[in-house]
C-alpha cells in the first residue's frame, strides 16, 4: 500500500509501521485503499493502491532501474500482455519484472548477485506480483542449455546480452519478441549483429530521449536541465519460415 500525505509517501504492507516526522504510522492488517489512518500524533495519511510509477519511486533499489519511458517502449513495441511468458536477465531492482507482472505476464528472471536477487524478491512481494515472478539467482548464459524455450518475450539488461541474443531463436516462441536495453551503443551494435546471426526479423534500435517542457511567464521551451538520454533499446522478432 502507498501511504500518502502531501509530498510524503511511504510503501507499507498491512500490519507494518513507519516512523515519520509527523509521528508513527501503524497500518492496520485489514486496511483497504481509500482508508485514512492517523499517526500517534493525530496526523492523517491516506492509503492508496500502488501503481506503476509508485513502484519506480519506492521499491528498494540495488542499482539504476530501467526508466518508465524505456519500459513503456518495451511494452508498446512487443505488445506483451496477460497470459504471456517472459524470460528476463539482469533483474536488478526488478522494476521491469514488476511492471510486466502487473500486466498479467509470467516472468522468469535471472540475477547474478544473490543479495540483489533477495531484494528483488522482496520488491515483487511489495508490488503484489510475487506469485507471477520467479526471481532466480544465477547467470542466464550459464543456464541456456537447460532453459526450455517457447517464451513470448525475451528481455535483457546485461553486459553479455549479445551471447544470449545469439540463441534467441531457441528461447522464443514463433512470433515472440526480443527487447534488449543497452547503456552503450557498442553493446547495442553487438546485439544487433547477434540478432542477425540468429535469423531474427524486424530488427531495430532506438535511442530513448525524453525532454521536459518548461512553461513560465517568459514563454515555453524544452528544459535546459539535460537531454534526457537513458540508453538504447534493440528490438527484434522470431519469425521462422513455415514449411
Automatic annotation (TrEMBL):
Q: List the Gene Ontology MF annotations in alphabetical order.
A: tRNA (adenine(57)-N1)/(adenine(58)-N1)-methyltransferase activity; tRNA (adenine(58)-N1)-methyltransferase activity
tRNA (adenine(58)-N(1))-methyltransferase catalytic subunit TRM61 C-terminal domain location: 69-214
Name the PROSITE patterns for this protein.
SAM_TRM61 (PS51620)
Q: What Gene Ontology cellular-component terms does the record carry? A: tRNA (m1A) methyltransferase complex
Tell me, which GO biological process terms does this entry list? tRNA methylation
Could you say which enzyme class this protein belongs to?
transferase
Q: Which classification does the entry list for the species? A: Archaea, Methanobacteriati, Methanobacteriota, Stenosarchaea group, Halobacteria
Question: What species is this protein from?
Answer: Natronomonas moolapensis (strain DSM 18674 / CECT 7526 / JCM 14361 / 8.8.11)
Establish whether keyword Iron is in the entry. Answer: no
Which Pfam families would you find in this protein's record? GCD14
Q: Which InterPro entries match?
A: SAM-dependent_MTases_sf, TRM61_C, tRNA_MeTrfase_Gcd14
Keyword terms, alphabetized: Methyltransferase, S-adenosyl-L-methionine, Transferase, tRNA processing
Q: What is this protein called?
A: tRNA (Adenine-N(1))-methyltransferase TrmI
Enzyme Commission code(s) on record: 2.1.1.219
Amino acid at each position: 500500500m502507498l501511504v500518502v500525505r502531501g509530498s510524503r509517501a511511504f510503501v507499507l504492507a498491512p500490519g507494518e509501521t513507519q516512523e515519520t516526522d509527523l509521528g508513527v504510522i501503524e497500518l492496520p492488517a485489514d486496511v483497504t485503499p481509500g482508508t485514512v489512518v492517523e499517526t500517534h500524533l493525530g496526523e492523517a495519511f491516506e492509503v492508496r493502491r500502488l501503481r506503476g510509477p509508485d513502484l519506480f519511486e519506492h521499491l528498494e533499489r540495488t542499482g539504476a532501474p530501467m526508466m518508465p519511458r524505456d519500459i513503456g517502449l518495451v511494452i508498446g513495441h512487443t505488445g506483451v500482455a496477460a497470459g504471456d511468458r517472459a524470460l528476463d536477465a539482469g533483474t536488478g531492482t526488478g522494476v521491469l519484472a514488476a511492471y510486466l507482472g502487473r500486466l498479467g505476464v509470467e516472468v522468469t528472471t535471472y540475477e547474478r548477485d544473490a543479495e540483489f536477487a533477495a531484494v528483488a524478491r522482496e520488491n515483487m512481494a511489495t508490488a503484489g506480483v510475487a506469485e507471477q515472478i520467479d526471481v532466480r539467482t544465477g547467470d542466464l548464459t550459464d543456464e541456456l542449455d537447460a532453459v526450455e524455450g517457447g517464451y513470448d518475450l525475451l528481455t535483457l539488461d546485461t553486459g553479455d546480452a549479445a551471447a544470449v541474443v545469439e540463441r534467441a531463436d531457441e528461447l522464443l516462441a514463433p512470433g515472440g519478441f526480443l527487447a534488449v536495453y543497452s547503456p552503450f551503443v557498442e553493446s547495442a551494435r553487438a546485439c544487433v549483429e547477434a540478432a542477425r546471426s540468429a535469423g531474427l526479423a524486424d530488427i531495430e534500435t532506438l535511442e530513448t530521449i525524453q525532454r521536459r517542457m518548461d512553461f513560465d511567464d517568459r514563454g515555453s521551451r524544452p528544459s535546459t536541465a539535460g537531454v534526457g538520454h537513458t540508453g538504447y533499446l534493440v528490438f527484434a522478432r522470431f519469425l521462422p519460415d513455415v514449411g
